[in-house]
Design a protein that fits this description.
The structure is a homodimer.
Chain A (H helix, E strand, L loop, with lengths): L2 H8 L3 H8 L7 H13 L6 H8 L4 E7 L4 H4 L1 H17 L2 E7 L4 H11 L4 E4 L8 H8 L3 E4 L11 E4 L1 H14 L5 E5 L5 H16 L9 E3 L4 H12 L7 E4 L2 H13 L9 E6 L15 E4 L2 H17 L7 E4 L2 E3 L8 H4 L1
Parallel strand pairs in A: 1-2, 1-3, 3-4, 4-5, 5-11, 6-7, 6-8, 8-9, 9-10
Antiparallel strand pairs in A: 10-12
Helix pairs in contact in A: 1-2, 6-13, 7-8, 9-10, 11-12
Chain A binds a DNA duplex through helix 2 and helix 4.
Chain lengths: 344, 344
DNA sequence: GGCGCTTTCCAAAGCGCTTTGGATTTCCTC
DNA sequence: GAGGAAATCCAAAGCGCTTTGGAAAGCGCC
């Protein structure tokens, strides 16, 4: 069923039917109702490609995902973020499209996306420090919002981010207040902007407390469970092991806990742990009492806010860029306690 | 840059340029090269909507995700599955599109997808027992492949699935061989087909060993960490607690372990645990020695196989439906040991 | 040079929609 | 009942591509 045959059936012109369905005022309420009913009865939907061709809008929002690394997709955060974003998309009639690109072809991919006209805007995920994609997208003129920010980029752009620096600063201070002096940071990949900022917060808190940051206590890699386990095990074997550990995600924190258990130690009593918690649906930080003391910020909520901002930007391109800072909440759970030396 | 202006620049007709770029034989190698070069130089890509309109193909594969439950998206399995699928899509020039639909509107959504012509086929994820979507899609005539199967559906359809029944049967037998008699099943939602089959395998193994299945030892819910923890804690408090637990996923197994630890027990010595392991990138089952004894099957690989099958089906609609059964591997890790009674 | 054949190219129709610029009808007002 | 405004509808162009049905040019051959 297409517009033409529907119009013939109704004995109306295509114009009138189109207008009736798209809510234009030049059509009487009587005919509009008649048209709408017929459309429903025949299960008519305008062909999205034809509509897009005529309007110049795709009603699709793109996510470009670098292939070789794949960090974004397989990170459990991805699912919750997308779930949040999809809520806003669905409400506004957008679909979301994922394009996988081989590493290094990102610039090409964005150019192609715009030339092919397959999306109206993109979400930029996982920004790095000095992320070249931001100036690139500005140059191309494709609307975008960044999930996170990019240190070192001066240009003006829209973003939604957690205050990573502040939250890790607070977490570190919290541990310092408990008497900890040997505090380890099991960070994400530090070329990623969020990890970079977290480290800044951590270092700053240490310095304020006149504790010299020890590079032996700082690790950086992709935030898997195995990584959290591996680094913790290594650090606990040191001559002067940490009494507290800051972990970058729930998943790596689980690895941290496993290493602590295996070393015959007890979390909170022997080693305190604080993690960042993205409030993932499948990995809640306990039900009543939190398992881990954590800096919590819902990534699903971030996804929703972000996609709303992007849609607004697409539909009103000339409004100035907006940004939204989410403050993480520090929830105190069962993984932290006073430093061992203090208890004697 | 569009076809028309490119053709003008080259002093050729649109036809010739189009044919040159699409590899038709009616154009000399000399002009083809000339055209290709110009296309590259001007960064020309055919507009995908116009192309789709003309060819009737969207070069997009859809995933329809029910909204209210959202199980699919936030499940960490989702990311790995999509990462695998995207590999095949990218190789064949397809994009993937996600449409979120409100619960109950699924039928509408599929109809819309086909009427709007926005996808060439869909992947059906998370099939339930007697899943109505399968006959629906057949009726509509939209190409699809199922990730999993649906017990109770007689119709012929293409699928990729893990042999869930067999793998949980083997896992149960493994525990029985170790002397366990009180074996609990912390299953996924049993309206989901995979969970249904796992339970069948579990029950069958028990019956073969003349152990009467105990409904008090069987739980079913969404496979979160908190769920694994909650059910394990409850069962360990029973008068006649289980000595072994079968968990439905790595994430719930982590909850199981947490409950075991909290109860002051030791995994493997006091309580054995076997889990299914989807081989998620961020949640590997240990590095050298597996943490958990597990039935392992890569969901990323499943995604890749499945999307290749779907593309084949889209491009050659008349070939008979194919299916692919993946056998899970039983890897023995550190979470299983002889039943406590046996050691005395 | 005319014939048939291949090679190489093109004009124009069509995909299904929106939208412009008019045309026609209806309704009020005096 | 004439004039003008408002309401209602329509034909046709255009979005950027593919593809059909030919046309023109080049070639070997008698």
């Amino acid at each position: 069923m297409n517009l033409k045959t529907l119009a013939e059936k109704l004995q109306l012109s295509q114009t009138t039917v189109s207008r009736a369905l798209n809510g234009y005022p030049e059509v009487s309420e009587t005919t509009r109702r008649r048209v709408e009913e017929a459309a429903r009865a025949h299960n008519y939907r305008p062909n999205s490609r034809a509509k897009g061709l005529a309007t110049g809008r795709a009603m699709v929002i793109g996510h470009v995902i670098p292939a070789s690394t794949q960090h974004e997709m397989v990170n459990p955060v991805f699912g919750d973020f997308v779930a949040g974003a999809s809520r806003a998309y669905a409400a506004c009639g957008y679909d979301m499209m994922f394009t996988r690109v081989d590493d290094g072809d990102e610039e090409q991919a964005y150019h192609a996306l715009v030339a092919k006209g397959s999306v109206d805007g993109v979400i930029l995920q996982g920004p790095k420090v000095n992320d070249a994609r931001i100036p690139l997208l500005k140059r191309i003129g494709l609307p975008f919002i960044v999930h996170g920010r990019s240190s070192g980029i001066e240009e003006d752009y829209g973003w939604v981010d957690v205050n990573n620096k502040r939250s890790f600063q607070r977490a570190t201070e919290f541990l310092i207040d408990l008497g900890h002096k040997r505090i380890a940071l099991i960070n994400g990949l530090e070329q990623m902007d969020f990890a970079h900022r977290r480290r800044e917060g951590y270092v700053e808190a240490l310095k304020s407390a006149r504790i010299e940051p020890d590079s032996a206590l700082m690790r950086s890699a992709e935030m898997t469970e195995v990584y959290g386990h591996h680094e913790t095990r290594a650090m606990l074997k040191m001559d002067n092991p940490p009494t507290a550990i800051l972990a970058a995600s729930m998943i790596s924190a689980i690895g941290v806990r496993r290493a602590i258990d295996e070393a015959g130690l007890t979390m909170a009593r022997d080693v305190s742990v604080i993690t960042h918690d993205d409030d993932l649906s499948y990995l809640r930080n306990g039900s009543d009492v939190p398992i881990f003391t954590a800096t919590r910020s819902s990534v699903q909520q971030a996804g929703e806010i972000l996609s709303r901002m992007l849609i607004e930007k697409i539909e009103q391109p000339d409004t100035p860029n907006k940004s939204h800072m989410l403050e993480a909440e520090l929830v105190v759970g069962r993984s932290t306690g006073p430093a061992p030396e203090m208890r004697r």
